[in-house]
Inverse folding.
């Protein structure tokens, strides 16, 4: 298989590495309903040979936690595609944009290294907006939404600067304000249905990459 930059990455099944937090883990949904697992199943239905996803993500992780996790994990490289979705816990804990920007730059650099330097095989995903969920009832929702936008501006700018792909799933997450079935039973995390909608966007980009 040739990379988007012409460098051979893999001749076997597509290997996807998903980096992140609870949104990547699939908190509160079934084992087969996280978006990385749904992605692989959908790609197989489309006739693609895809390995089970490698997932390095823990609920509650911030960017600094993920950085440490990567340092402590012996990942079998290279991967064909790396996805990165992280930052909601930075916002929730009132972390600074400056620190987030530095961490996202480091995580993006690491992600690119995991695909042998081919930035075109890295996908940065936006942070969902949890202000629309029942969990946020009583909170300053407009303030939360604005902070999420500010963090996502950093992710988008990093993607543009690094030559990686950016997928904005935040508008889908905001549909949950009027569509309760997009939220899991805990009133905070996405449901399997929302993850399936993310997969449609992610799969189209990955198929563009591998073709």
């Amino acid at each position: 298989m040739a990379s988007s930059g012409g460098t051979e990455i893999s001749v076997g099944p597509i290997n996807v590495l998903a980096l992140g937090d609870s949104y990547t883990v699939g908190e509160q949904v079934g084992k087969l309903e996280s978006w990385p697992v749904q992605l692989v199943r959908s790609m197989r239905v489309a006739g693609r040979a895809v390995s089970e996803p490698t997932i390095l993500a823990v609920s509650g992780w911030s960017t600094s936690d993920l950085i440490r996790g990567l340092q402590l994990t012996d990942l079998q490289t290279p991967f064909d595609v790396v996805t990165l979705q992280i930052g909601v816990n930075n916002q929730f804990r009132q972390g600074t944009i400056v620190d987030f920007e530095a961490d996202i730059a480091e995580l993006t650099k690491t992600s690119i290294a995991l695909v042998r330097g081919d930035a075109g095989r890295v996908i940065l995903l936006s942070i969902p907006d949890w202000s629309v969920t029942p969990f946020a009832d009583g909170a300053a929702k407009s303030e939360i939404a604005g902070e999420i936008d500010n963090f996502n501006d950093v992710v988008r700018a990093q993607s543009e600067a690094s030559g990686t792909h950016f997928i904005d799933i935040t508008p889908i997450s905001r549909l949950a304000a009027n569509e309760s079935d997009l939220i899991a039973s805990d009133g905070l995390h996405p449901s399997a249905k929302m993850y399936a909608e993310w997969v449609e966007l992610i799969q189209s980009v990955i198929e563009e990459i591998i073709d």
